[in-house]
Amino acid sequence: MRAARAVLYGLWTVAFALGLVGVWQRIAYGHTLAGYGSYVVWGLWVAAYAYFVGLSAGSFLFAALVNVLNVNVLRPLSRTALFTALVSIAVALLAVLFDLGHMNRAFEVFTSPNFSSMMTWMVWLYAAYGILLLALMWYERNGNTGMVRALYTVGIPLAIAFPGGGGALFATLSSKPYWHQPLYPIFFVVGALLSGAALMAALASVFWPDRSDMLHVLGRTVLGLIALDLVLEWAEFSIPLWYGVSPEKEVLMQILTGRFWWVFWVVHLVLGSAVPVALLLWRPHHATCVGIAGALTALTFLAVRLNIVIPGQVTPELRGLENAFSDHRLTFSYVPTTHEWLVLLFLVAVGLGALWLGFRYLPLIETREVETHERYS
């Protein structure tokens, strides 16, 4: 097991070092090395931002479920879920920071806010949410259960509001028929719950492999949320395609049969849905099956976010616009560049490093449970 741990540390170090190269390129060369441009303006980093926001909201709602509704079977996960929510939202904001044209002006949304902009409301919600998470960490550490319960109660509508607001951010763009749907805020909230629950299932299988009751509840929760998410996706695709005359038909067909069809069919539906469902139905109490199902669902959910962010921009709203001007930044074709993947690698390495430090030095897991885990690992 020590050899495996050394390999993991080595992989993390390589990932962090390569990620630093990407960050240096972003600071030194701006957006010139990225694959997006003037038509496709949001790329891999915006998809990653939406993905990590969902992980944060889903993790927080799990912690809130334990502390407000007294779901005691999930109580060991409470602090882990809270810290995961904090790390995920920090990584999400770092991802969107790299996407900004002028990173040094990010603070102006606080000093010169425009409250008619959905983005302003999102940033202010994130700030309130971040303060709430830090306060909860403080009161959790000091054992103030009254304040912890009160803050979780306040935080539930907040944690529902900002992934829903993320969906509204896309849905309010009426120039993009694929995004301009009232279903999007609900879609984002369900996605946040699913990815957060899946991540908690994966972590629970590692730190509490003997708690079959907790794993069973988490597995059933993930199963139910996968089913709900697939029903929503069925509605999203089947209704516009039924008569084949809706304006978003071309975008939906790009997702289903285009160049990156495998992102939807293989990564999302097979690896992120069918395999986890099969594992959870086959061995609902087994730590390995629940852990693999949770990890697959949580990791592959990035494909769902990519299929929201990218296809909505690659179809010209005006016929012939793609040929009207000639420049390498004026194209409707987008593939993330190596530079973008390196920056994403940096974000993942930072998130994993923060989680490791939290598990190592913060009381996220009871000491007795840590000792048990280390003895068996």
Largest sheet, in brief, is: none
User: What is the residue-averaged pLDDT?
Assistant: 87
Structural class: mainly alpha
The percent range for strand residues is: under 5%
Work out the number of β strands.
0
Number of H- or I-type helical stretches? 14
- Silhouette: globular
Q: Would you mind describing this structure in some detail?
A:
The chain is mostly helical. 74% of the residues lie in helices and 0% in strands. The protein contains 14 helices and no strands. It has helices at residues 2-29, 44-69, 78-99, 108-111, 118-141, 145-171, 184-207, 212-242, 249-257, 261-282, 287-309, 321-324, 338-361, 367-376. α2 runs antiparallel to α6 (145-171) and α8 runs parallel beside α11. The chain is globular. Mean pLDDT is 87; it is low at 370-377.
Give the topology.
Elements (H helix, E strand, L loop, with lengths): L1 H28 L14 H26 L8 H22 L8 H4 L6 H24 L3 H27 L12 H24 L4 H31 L6 H9 L3 H22 L4 H23 L11 H4 L13 H24 L5 H10 L1
List keywords for this structure.
single chain; 377 residues; mainly alpha; 0% strand; globular; disordered C terminus; transmembrane helix; transmembrane
Task: Provide a brief overview of the structure.
This protein has 377 residues and is mainly alpha-helical.
